[in-house]
Write a structure and sequence with these properties.
The protein is an alpha+beta fold. The chain folds into two domains: about 5-140, Winged helix-like DNA-binding domain superfamily/Winged helix DNA-binding domain (Arc Repressor Mutant, subunit A, Orthogonal Bundle); about 145-175, no CATH class. It is built from five helices and nine strands. The strands form four sheets. The protein has a three-stranded antiparallel sheet with strand order 3-7-4. Strands 1-2 form a two-stranded antiparallel sheet. Helix 3 (about 35-45) packs across helix 5 and helix 4 (about 65-70) packs across helix 5. It starts with a strand and ends in an 8-residue tail after the last strand.
Length: about 180
Amino acid sequence: MSRKTNRKGRTEPVEHFAKLTRALMETPAWRTLSTTAMALYPWLRLEWHGPQNNNNGRIRLSVRQAAKKLGVSNDTAARAFRDLQGKGFLVVTEPAHLGVEGAAKSPTFELTELPLPHSEPHVGRMLYRSWRKGQDLPVQKAAVHNPDGCNGKSRTLSRKPGRDVTEFRTNSTRLS
């Protein structure tokens, strides 16, 4: 939490808040959002550092972090992210990936309501204004690099005494 100094020179905590405008909330795109997506949007706004330290386009909030903040499952939080993307409130600027040290990095987002750093004019793209019913914008989903979850390990196909058949999977082989 940041602090500011009062007139006596003492530091006081400054409350962090997210501004939601009536103009945003009265758009058709907002009205069709799921309630989870509506609840997620202020959490994303809280990750924005403000106009002086504009980090729009580099906002990070993972699905797991969002699920914990909202008190929902990871699948529900992921659907909320997709809903915000489809309605034009959110754009993925960099997909999730593993960092150099092997630590996962969540995707980075742009909130289209807010301006990007050093953009002219100083307003956001507001893609949600062009949204129409039945015409969702493209949604970037996380890539599934290991859909079977086997990590190159073997799987036993049959368990007859003295006759174990093991199939080693590669990326091109898939079990039914």
